[in-house]
Design goal:
Elements: E1 16-20, H1 22-29, H2 35-40, E2 44-48, H3 50-64
């Protein structure tokens, strides 16, 4: 997934990258694994602007948590 905000041209490299492994991503989508638990257990890797990545993660959190 590539997310772009604003009207600026695409950067040569992403500002932030959030990379879960496939198994953890499937578990989060099925709401069996809370995203914070996945991150703190090392199943999600963040590179680049960690602050931006965390903001994006918080914006997406409701899609991966039970209501």
């Amino acid at each position: 997934l590539t997310a772009k905000f604003g009207t600026q041209p695409d950067p040569a490299t992403p500002d932030a990258t959030i990379a879960p492994d496939a198994e953890s991503y499937a578990a989060m989508r099925a709401r069996r694994l809370p995203p914070p638990e996945a991150y703190f257990s090392g199943r999600i890797r963040i590179s680049g602007d960690a602050g931006l990545a965390m903001q994006i993660g918080m914006a997406l959190l409701p899609r991966f948590t039970q209501t």
